[in-house]
Write a structure and sequence with these properties.
Number of helices: 15
Distance between the termini: 54 Å
CATH superfamily of the largest domain: Hypothetical protein af1432
Largest sheet: 4 strands, antiparallel
CATH architecture of the largest domain: Orthogonal Bundle
Number of domains: 2
InterPro entries: DUF3391, HD/PDEase_dom, HD_GYP_dom
Shape: globular
GO molecular function, one term: phosphoric diester hydrolase activity
Number of strands: 4
Helix content: 40-55%
CATH class of the largest domain: Mainly Alpha
Order of helices and strands: EEEHEHHHHHHHHHHHHHH
Pfam family, one: HD_5
Protein name: HD-GYP domain-containing protein
Radius of gyration: 20 Å
CATH topology of the largest domain: Hypothetical protein af1432
Strand order of the largest sheet: 1-4-2-3
Strand content: under 5%
Length: 332
């Protein structure tokens, strides 16, 4: 099946067909799978506005065609690629080195793990192939082990979280705080697979790759139609993980239910109370907290204390009260 998309939507892993003669483009073939950002830039230099993608031969989900109005807006993915970008490497070597270096000072380790985890998640959102998803889960398992074993590095990580609201930064922030809350709750139990929990927390918003970035980054209140569009991301995340053969029960609960509220006012299924899995209730608290403490174009970031106070005084019905009380203790 072939699907038309804007050239602004091209990502690594798509199998594309160029509507040009062989002599009018710089490639050996007119149809091929995109392997790196350099190929994307060459395609854009062909002055094409739209292109056909072979859905069945692509490694990544194919988004719906952006409207003509949307394509006029600059896409952050069109920014210049960093010089040290390696499309074949998901996890930066610096991240792997920091995770394995037992002699590194905890403050330096925290900075390295945080910075390069963000890079890994940015690359994953750029190229969410099955191989990259599986690789990310392996690296997240190592990050989880670090958080479980090293209290000092964990404390430093909790203090240095960034307050921008890029989806990849948000994923790391929610991943770290959710793992630390799970550590406090389950540290004396062998009944929980904390590696899969960590994966679910870090990948909870993976479905946002199927959401129009102009809606995600809109500087203001969303329309009802835009909100409905954003609310597809839990199920889209579920589908992406399932297609990658990376969907554990833990990931399924977290990805599908992290926007469900304790009082039944959340989405996508308006679940209530214990209908929401405890793992998703953990992620929900961390998700809201990070949204409040992150700076957006239309609001300033709240300080952690003020965010926790607002959550307690104005949003308490959204959360499992016992889990929220444990979450507050992380910041004392």
């Amino acid at each position: 099946m072939r699907q038309k998309i804007s050239t602004k939507q091209l990502t690594i892993g798509m199998f594309i067909e160029l509507p040009l003669s062989w002599s009018d483009h710089p490639f050996l073939k007119s149809s091929f799978k995109i392997k790196n950002r350099e190929q994307i830039e060459k395609i854009k230099n062909c002055k094409l506005t739209h292109i056909l993608v072979d859905v069945d031969r692509s490694d990544v989900p194919i988004p719906a065609l952006l409207s003509e109005e949307d394509t006029r807006i600059a896409d952050p993915k069109d920014q210049p690629v960093p010089e040290n970008w390696n499309p074949q490497t998901l996890a930066p070597s610096e991240l792997l080195e920091a995770l394995n270096d037992s002699s590194m000072a905890s403050d330096m380790k925290a900075k390295a793990v945080y910075q390069h985890s963000r890079t890994m998640m940015e690359r994953l959102f750029e190229s969410p192939s099955s191989d990259n998803i599986v690789t990310s889960k392996k690296v997240i398992a190592s990050i989880t082990d670090l958080l479980l074993a090293d209290d000092e590095t964990s404390s430093n990580l909790l203090r240095i979280t960034s307050h921008d609201f890029y989806t990849y930064t948000h994923s790391v922030n929610v991943g770290i705080t959710s793992i630390l809350l799970s550590k406090a709750l389950f540290k004396n139990s062998d009944a929980h697979d904390l590696h899969e929990l960590g994966a679910g927390f870090f990948l909870h918003d993976l479905g946002k790759i199927m959401v129009d970035p102009n809606v995600i980054n809109k500087p203001g209140k969303l329309t009802d139609a835009e909100m409905a569009h954003v609310r597809i991301h839990p199920f889209q995340g579920y589908k992406i993980l399932k297609q990658a053969n990376a969907l554990s029960d833990e990931c399924r609960y977290i990805v599908m239910q992290h926007h469900e509220f304790h009082d039944g006012t959340g989405y996508p299924k308006r679940l209530k109370g214990k209908e929401i899995h405890r793992y998703a209730r953990i992620c929900c608290i961390a998700d809201v907290f990070d949204a409040l403490t992150s700076e957006r174009s239309y609001k300033k970031a709240m300080k952690p204390f003020d965010a926790l106070k607002l959550m307690q005084q104005q949003m308490s019905e959204h959360f499992d009260k016992k889990l929220f009380a444990e979450f507050v203790l992380l910041f004392k």
